[in-house]
Amino acid sequence: MAEAPAWVPALTLRLQLQGLAALGLDAARVQAALGPLPDAPDALVPAQAYVRMWHAAEPLHGPGLASALAGTIAFGAFGALDYLVGSADTVAGGCESARLHFAMVSTDTALEIDPLDDGGHALRVRALAPMPVQALEFTLATLFLRLRHVTGGGFRPRLLGLPVARPAGDDDERLALFGQPPAYGHPCAEMLIDAATWALPTCSADPMLHAALKDMAARLELAQPGDSSLQQALRARLRDALAQGHADAARLAELLGVSERTLQRRLTEIGRSFSEVVEEFRREEAARLLATPGLALVEVASRLGYAEQSSFTRAFRRWTGVTPGRWRAGRR
C-alpha cells in the first residue's frame, strides 16, 4: 500500500509568508506558487506545499533564508510549542517539551535528544518525509531562538550544525542570528549542548502551567503503531471534531487543507476508509474516557459525538460485547 504524504501545519506556512514580507521579499510571488492556504487555526497542508514554498522563496534571498525567516517569527507565534518551552524551568525541560510536542503533533519532523559522554546532550532535527535542507535549518533555528529567548540570551550551544554548504561569501545573517559560526556541511541539523547550558534555568518558568501542558500533550496518545501520516493527521483532529459534533469527512478535509475527494482518495491509497478511521478512534477514545474517574456516561457519549447516550451504548456493545457501564464496573 502506498504511504500518504506527510503534513505540515498551515500556520507554519502563513508565518513564513509573513516573514518573507518582513524581509522585504516578494511574498505574493511565493503565495502564488503555493495557492490558497486553509484559514482554520489547526489546518494542515501536504508537506509538498512546504517543499514548493522553499523552492519558490530561496531564489529571492539566497543562502541563509531559513535562519533569517526563523528570526522574523516572534516568540508566542507557534502557540503550544512556545508555551511548552517557555514554561519549562530549564533548557533541558524546554528541549524535552519540544520533543514531546513534535512527537504528538508533527508528521513530517521529529526531534531527537541523545546524551553525550561529557554530560551534555545533542538535540537533532530529523525529517520523517522528503524535506529540503532549508526546512531542517528553519526548525533548528526556531528552536535555538526559543531557547535563547527563555534564557534571557544565555543559551549558547557548544556547536550548531547545519546540513548546508558553506556560502561562497560572507554569512553575516547567520552570524548575527546565532552569535557564532555554524558548522557547515554537517550530517544533520543539530545542536550540541554542554552540561552547564543543559541545566541553565529559564526566565519564564511556570511549573503549574508547564505540568498542565505536558499532561495534556502526554494524554493525547493519538498515534498508533503502524499509523500512516494521514491517519495521524486525522486522529489529531478527531478528538475536538467529535466533541463539537462536526466529525464528518467534509469538515476533516477542510481542517487538513484538502478537498473531501482528495481525502477519500488518499485514504483509499493506504487501504483505509474515513468511517474505519473514525470508528477505531471512537472505540479507543471511549476506553480512555470511561477510565476517567467522575466522567458521566452521558458526557462520554457527547465527547464521542453521539447525540444520544443510547447510540453510544449500542456502538460500545458492538465493539466489546458489554455495555459501557458494565465495562467501567469491571475495571474497578
The total beta strand count reads: 6
Give the N-to-C terminal Cα separation: 41 Å
Helix content: 55-70%
Rounded mean pLDDT is 86
Shape: globular
DSSP helix count? 17
Strand order of the largest sheet: 3-4-6-5
Give the low-pLDDT segments: 1-5, 219-227
Largest sheet: 4 strands, antiparallel
> Which structural class is indicated by helix and strand composition?
alpha+beta
The proportion of residues in beta strands is 5-15%
What is the ordering of alpha helices and beta strands? EHHEHHHHEEHEHEHHHHHHHHH
**Rg for CA atoms:** 22 Å
Brief sketch in words of this structure:
By secondary structure, the protein is α+β, with helices and mostly antiparallel strands.
Can you walk me through this structure?
- This protein has helices spanning 10-22, 27-34, 47-61, 65-72, 80-87, 91-105, 133-150, 172-178, 195-198, 207-220, 229-243, 249-256, 260-269, 274-290, 297-303, 309-320, 324-330; strands at residues 7-9, 44-46, 109-115, 121-127, 159-161, 189-193.
- The protein is α+β, with helices and mostly antiparallel strands and 332 residues long.
- The strands form two sheets. It has a four-stranded antiparallel β-sheet with strand order 3-4-6-5. Strands 1-2 form a two-stranded antiparallel ribbon.
- Helix 5 (80-87) packs antiparallel against helix 6.
- The protein is globular.
